[in-house]
Protein: Helix-turn-helix domain-containing protein
Organism: Christiangramia echinicola
Amino acid sequence: MNHFITLSSYLDYLGLPRPEHPMLSVFNSKGDGYLPCPRESSPPITNDCYSISFKKYVHGKLNYGRTKYDFTNGALIFIAPGQVLQWDDSVVFERKGFSINFHEDFLKGTELAHQIKKYGFFSYSVNEALHLSPKEEKQIETIVENIEIEYQNNQDEFSKEIIISQLDTLLKYANRFYERQFLNRKELSNDLLEKFNMHLSKFFESGQLQEKGIPSIEQIAGRMSVSQRYLSDTLKKETGKTTTEHLHLYLIDEAKHILLQPNKSISEVAYELGFEYPPYFSRLFKKKEGISPTEYREKFNLN
């Protein structure tokens, strides 16, 4: 798999114009302009750059990590360094919108270098992109135009600071708009929780817990065709609990049923639920229920 260390080498590979700055490129189709089109297809590649793009694709399938997505207009997409990208000639690249690419070293020594890692949407799959309202689109476009002005100007000692300030503002607005998107998609959130519990149920009923242990959140998210971060963020917004908490609640609920079988020891119950170490199961049970598994049994006079 090809990995591009510099921004220039990445843009050269795509067949796009060389950047005005060695670690930053801005393409904007404002007015009657058009975005340059990248190469028609690519095998899996990675690079060391962040990418923020809007309306880059009209239709066709592009692989982003392990997810295939049919693109539509109006999606704001965030890509972090190290993400795997792949597409073929079925993808039609939109000529309107914008694309900002910057090397991770561009942020070195700035507060944004630390803050950007907290924005979960850089870890989302492309099918979890941010869909902007017309008003939100205008707000983002204004920020991008400010970045482009500094990018195209003769750069001085203030240029980088101003650009990073604008990038910081753009990401804060994106975070706000994602909050709105989460609120507007409560049905989707409920559906995700149902699917999450359904996959846990299938995993439990298949007997794989004893054989393979407790599934990781990444495994469950993969089966649901969503990213781990998006699944956790969505459930957290809707239920106040993370995916790990929901997983623990499911396991404890199953444990309660099995503990009512007096012929099984606490260790056997733990192993049946996929816990490698029974003491960890006992600690988790007590943390969630306030009493130990043994005390739970005593409560029902089953010892």
